[in-house]
Amino acid sequence: MNISKKKPPVKREIKELSLLLEISQILDNSPDIRDSVGNVLKAMAKHMGMIRGTLTLLNRQSGEISIEAAYGLSSSERVKGKYKLGEGITGKVVASGKPAVVPRISEEPLFLDKTGARKKLTKKDISFICIPIKIGKEVIGSLSVDRLFSDNISFEEDIRLLTILASMVAQAVKLRQTAQEEKNYLLEENLRLQQKLKDKFSFSNIIGSSAAMNDVYTLIAQVSKSNASVLILGESGTGKELVASAIHYNSLRAKKPFVKVSCAALSESILESEIFGHEKGAFTGAATQRKGRFELANKGTIFLDEIGDIPLSTQIKLLRVLQEKEFERVGGTQSIKIDVRVIAATNRNLEKLIKEGRFREDLYYRLHVFPINIPPLRERKTDILLLANYFIGKYSKENQKNIRRISTPAIDMLMSYHWPGNVRELENGIERAVLLSNDDVIHGHHLPPTLQTAEASGTVFRGNLQETLDKIERELIQETLKTAHGNRAKAARALGISERLMGLRVKKHNIDVQKYHSNW
């Protein structure tokens, strides 16, 4: 291969600088690598007088080299331009990482012309230059040009210029690849997290098979696909937030935001700003504009937990959002339109609050479109062991334990307890038991003291009824005398008995009244 070493004229250097500047601007301004390289090839054609140009990229998985962008080729010709590593001039350049020049492609048997584009001209009139595109030491593709053969062409200068251009394209490709990889990762992570949330909050994963819970599942399934407001009612710890999440992640809004607000956890002054947002300077400390939870939940769902604790002033604004689908930020005048589904929850008796004038009746009926009552744990006894086993599995895994069963006395304790704290209390109790267990079994003494029976705690009652009553009476009289500083008359009045009867009881129990006078 003969490479001409003729010194280029000054005019060429000016053209090169102009070309490099234009290409730099193209690569900076275009976000799509195909568009940017296509424009780069057009600029090269204009400045270098080339008749065709191609950018090929190597697929590392398949090992195939294909045309990513081209100038002077039809769509059908581009599709044909596929090479294996080492195949033809392009394949050899990508495989070796070294540039190649073919002064006349008609004289080079390795030139395959897979696209068929060179048939339009006599091959002896076409020169072909191919430069590897590298990121570090890795060859990711090639940049090639066709130009009419001329004795005045300086192939050495063409190689130098194309190498610079290939380097610029390589950086652009690297940036786009990195951005695309990050985008793909974020998309995949987003889909994974959405699926994880959907799996976690799918109502099929709410633990319980009792008749009461089956009714709840039916209601969730009926309301999920609608846009109706939902009011979830139930005691603390019954799982109202879990039900709200299940409704959202099984709804048509599942891929949109699910925003939670704990109305009881925020003061009246903060709650309104938190829900509706505020403008800069709306109040002391409002240094910047801030979007509220309703704006953040647009197109999705907002969960207003403990709605019964919301102040009347905020209730009025909330009612407007439900009716008009619009609101203003605190300190603002511009109405903001939103599309948000509202799910509310409370452990309060809203009807009682309405009678007391502490909750708006019109707001109640706006929220009460589709009520769901979550039964307390004491009304779903058959679910207790299912929940206990679930929490044992959860906390065994978290604490590297291997709890295999619950002892019979422990089961009896779980089943006989009234569970005022509901599922939350059960979960906390099981977590404690898992931590205390050292023989892979949950025993009765591992459970919280509130669950302990007399047998399990070794406090079985011994004695008759009269002895017990006398003991209680003595302790009660002593405590009252202590409060009254030894004044029998005052103590008698506090207990609702006569002073004479007080004297008899003091004498019966042999109580030293004088020692309580020291407390004056």
Features:
alpha/beta, 46% helix, elongated, Rossmann fold, Beta-Lactamase, 4 domains, Helicase, Ruva Protein, domain 3
Characterization of the model:
The structure is a single chain. The chain folds into four domains: 10-179, GAF domain (Beta-Lactamase, 2-Layer Sandwich), CATH 3.30.450; 202-375, P-loop containing nucleotide triphosphate hydrolases (Rossmann fold), CATH 3.40.50; 378-457, Helicase, Ruva Protein, domain 3 (Orthogonal Bundle), CATH 1.10.8; 465-519. Helices cover 46% and strands 15% of the residues. It has 19 helices and 17 strands. It has helices at residues 10-29, 33-48, 75-80, 88-96, 155-201, 211-224, 240-249, 268-276, 293-296, 312-324, 350-355, 361-367, 384-398, 408-416, 422-436, 454-457, 465-483, 488-495, 499-508, and strands spanning 52-58, 64-71, 82-84, 100-102, 126-135, 138-148, 230-233, 258-262, 277-278, 290-291, 301-305, 326-327, 336-337, 341-346, 370-373, 405-406, 441-442. A hairpin with an 8-residue loop joins β12 and β13.
